[in-house]
Amino acid sequence: MLATAIQSGKLAPGTKLPTHRAFAEKADVALATATRAYGELERRGMIVGEAGRGTFVRDLGLPPSLGIRQTASEGLIDLVFNMPGDAADADMLRAGLRRLAAAGDLEAMLRYQPHGGRTHERRIIAENLTSTLGPIDPECLLVTSGGQHGLAVTSLGLFRCGDAIATDTLTYPGFKSVAALQGLELVPVEGRGGVMDPTIWNGSAANGRCARSI
Predict the structure, then answer these.
(1) Each residue of 81-113: pLDDT tens digit?
(2) d(CA 19, CA 66)
(3) Which one of 136, 138, 193, 194 is CB 3.0 to 4.6 Å from 122, fit for a cystine?
(4) Which helix (H) or strand (E) holds 211?
């Protein structure tokens, strides 16, 4: 019943669904049956539950995951994405968006932004980093659209296709993706004491195989 209504568009994306108990009473089914039905709809990517808010109809035009299709054997743990799991993140985002909507020139947020971020944003970031990194010139900072974007920009600025880069034996998958796209060779260097072994790295650099390390 719900699946048909969602697929037909009768229940539009963003529609809040009744609680499991309310749906069970309306459909005249057991609470356990309603819970299983909601679970199946979520498994199909038709609905999404948010802690403290309820259950909502998903936009079926959007991918059910982060948009990167992967195949993996059962029992494996996906280490490609490191995402915060704090349930309070959604509340922080909600509060931040409310403050943004109520403050200043909101129309400015809808226009193209300066490359590298706005000056006052870079100044705030520089002040925040000063306590750990020392004085930082905001003009030397660039605001990127996330860590992966930052890795890509840095790699394109430093390396050329065919370069060999020394990395830890266990390397961040996001950088491996950047290296594959840019045609870089990754040379694993075994570690010692939590860092790459300098003896092994020096050997790779001496024979001309690696000019840089990550």
Answers:
(1) 666 666 677 788 888 888 888 877 777 778 888
(2) 27
(3) 138
(4) none
